[in-house]
Model the fold of this input.
Amino acid sequence: MAEDFNELLPLSPPVLHILLALAGEDRHGYGIMQEIVRQSAGQYKLWPATLYENLQKLLEQGIVEEISPRIPGDDSRRIYYKLTGLGRGLLSTEIARLERVFLEAKVHLRTRPRRA
Done:
């Protein structure tokens, strides 16, 4: 049975960027912030308070989970986060929703009459 994500969509920009940053690999907080900057070519940045407030909500919803450090000898205070199966499903659903929005926008932009 497919999950019903309607109550969780659309994702806010911070949540979308956090999930995208975690889609490729597990990351700690600073790593998530760095990946968001990289993926957005510096156009989008999260302040730590925004990141951790959203991570807390995502943890409570079961969309992300904390894991122990991946690298032996890594700072034990560093908390890594990963997408859960629910999180991957939510992100995939949001990406499909956004693709439909973009396709619709392209259709409207192509059919819009040009002004002289």
